[in-house]
Amino acid sequence: MTLTGREAGIDLLETALADCVAGQSRIVLIEAGTGCGKSALVDLVAERAAASGALVLYAVGAPEEQQVPLGVLRQLVNSEQVFALPRPSEGPGAPSRVEAMQAFCAELRELSLDCPVVLCVDDVQYADRESLQYVQYLARHARTAPVLVVVAGAVHAPAQDPAFTTELMRQPHFRRMRLERLTAAEVALVRGRQEPSAHAAETAELHRISGGNPLLLRALVEEAAGREAPESAATGPCAPLFPAPSFPCPEPGGPFAQAVATCLRRSGPDGLALARAAALLGEQATAARVTRLTGLDTAAARRGLAALEASGLLEGLRFRHPAARAAALEECDPQTLTALHREAARVLGEDRGPVLAVAEHLLAACAEGRPLDCGPAEVAVLRDAAEELLVRGDAREAARLLELAARARGDEHVERGIRVRLAQITARFDPAAAERQLGELLEAARAGLLDAEQVQPLAGLLLAQGQFAEAAALLPAALGEPAASALDTLVDATAAVGERLLQSARLTDATVAPLAQAVRSLICSEHPERAVPWSRNLLEEARRCQAPGWSAVFAALHAEALLRMGDLRGAHAHATAALEALPERGGSFPCSPAAVLIRACTAMGRFTEASRLADRQVPKGLLTGLHGLAFLRARGLYRLAVNQPHAALADFLEVGRLMEAGRVDRPAFLPWRTDAAEALLRLGEGTRAEQLALQQLTLPDAQRPYVRGVSLRIKALTGDPKRRTAVLGQAVEALHRSGDRVEAARAMAELGRALQADGSPAKGSAMIRSAWNLAKEAEATALCREILPDAPLTTPAARDRAPSEATPAAGTTAKLSSSEQRVATLAAQGLTNREISAKLYLTVSTVEQHLTRVYRKLQITSRGDLPTGLSPLPHPTPA
After folding, report:
1. Which residues are CB-contacts of 532 (< 8 A; sequence separation ≥ 6)?
2. Residues 27-45 pLDDT 10s
């Protein structure tokens, strides 16, 4: 009924009251949804009846008193203490029930002779059966007396006595009215809006959330007003009935939520149970599912749901606001809530509902440490839901589901498979946690309890953690012959093989380890520059997957590739990013980015920063894998740089011992012999240093430019002085081909000193200066100070530059860096990229990048457009 209808209802009640005062009997039944105003109307009738001089007898039904015989009737009689209620008894001589009802009716008729009598019974749906019989009797036998009977009840409430309403309707003086919820226009009027269109959006939101329920509407408005600052409230005679703030959303536990809870409690046990079931099922709620979840019969469930919708609490089977849905479950005790979630999972499972919805209920059922016994069907649902969450990029929630599935009591083989998958998923966001999960799985694998499908991903996880020896023990056929090193497959793979995999495979749990190994293989190859773009692409893909664990893996590899090429600043930035991506620093994996960071900081002369990482205590058990070995080597290089050769030598020799013991002794990955030889040279043990260098040169990896270059440099420093220049020239050429600018600069500086000692001071000085420039370009500050201790590392101002370093007046090279100018000068002279590469000790790729930037800065399209007047800068010359 609209607001006009409400006014018509009030007119009806006033007419009925007037007829009663005039000596006629009337019966009015008021029906409405919970909270929709029926009690307010009953109170209004009682107030106006009392004001007109009528005798008002008032009673309210309550669920807890529904089984108390004559409970409502006693309230009516005792409300004014007008007469004693007859007490029918089954004993001999006592009045029967009919006689008692006759006496009750006679007493009221007698009272009505003095003044009209008004009986008001609110919440009649909770009245006891005996009291309803008295009211029925009165309706039939008091037609000629001035008695007004007003009963109010919730619409769609289960009838205590189906004959009650029917009996009332049979009476000619019976009137029935139903209060409907407020419309949007009525909401605006209730709020004192004279121009509803000016606040249409706010009014519509209030109407949507409250459903037009007056009780909920008032709670909403009060909650909104309570959040206003006092000084912002309207004052004075023109203030509206309710304040009108910019309406905020109701909060859980606020006045609106409390009003919802009140309505639900007043809806009775069935209504509350149905509301909880609908709230629990959410988007998956259907009438059939809600009915099965509550255990009610179909008719009772239909009535209850209709009552909830009539009150505006539900729209269909959905709550109108999350705060209302939360209120329906707020007062539910944990044990009941657990049982409901468990039953909801069963109901949805039987209906083949969405696996994510079923899994959500299973997860909620075991919240706060509550145990949950999952069967095979539930385990299958949890696994399927976890995979669906992974597709959506939510690895953490997928891991929670698999943790629950792994705790189920069932097939141990299935449980181990779940734990392998759990470790894979955990590695996406927390490599340290994934590593901790591998212990029991590794023991099970050693005992032969894992099948091939479980061993393969386990081996991949071990490879990602750098545990090559353990992975080799699981999959000897995949990692090489039993007599070969576990690193052989990785180090000996050609660049083409690795790039084919990188081109064809997408980043997934199954491919993350092979892709990481392919990048590492490129870093160890003769073309390490190829690892830079691939590692960068995989890092970007890992970030798109929102997988911080994967991001850390590929950020560390990208940093390692940049370090291998002498890009110290880039290596530092990405190694730092790798560590920051980790939720915790435990496990062996953080040793990998930490190693790159220590080496980069050491080369850049940032010894304080390097010491914070190098001095960190690392458990010995974490140093046996590849990541731990890289950390040990980095710590040794730092100690060597800060003049601690004994400590450095101990680290390098420990690396060698562990590599030999683990059968991963490959200098292409880690040349520990030349590292130890460097420390021995500082200690004056040239003979031992030479032996280590010569030993490294006899290994197959000595054919690789990087290994050959560092080995030849040590050999030159420890061998025959007469051959030093020639050997260092070979070392420079090899290191130039390797792409490592820092090691190339170090060898060039040694070659320059050798040239000076051989009687070529000018040539030697030029070589030393070129080495210094190359080290400065790589920001290897420590090496710059070692090569030319007195040379300034900051760029002088333009007026302080030497004439040979001044830029041309034409300004064509004012935008070029020194490296770009050297490359552009040689290109303008007609040299090919490979010839420039050999002359400047750069990779061909670096030359191409320099030329691309030169073309862009000079706004030209080819080397034929390069100006011929470029000033040549000093550059290395071949020995």
Report:
1. 558, 561, 562, 565
2. 999 988 888 888 888 998 9
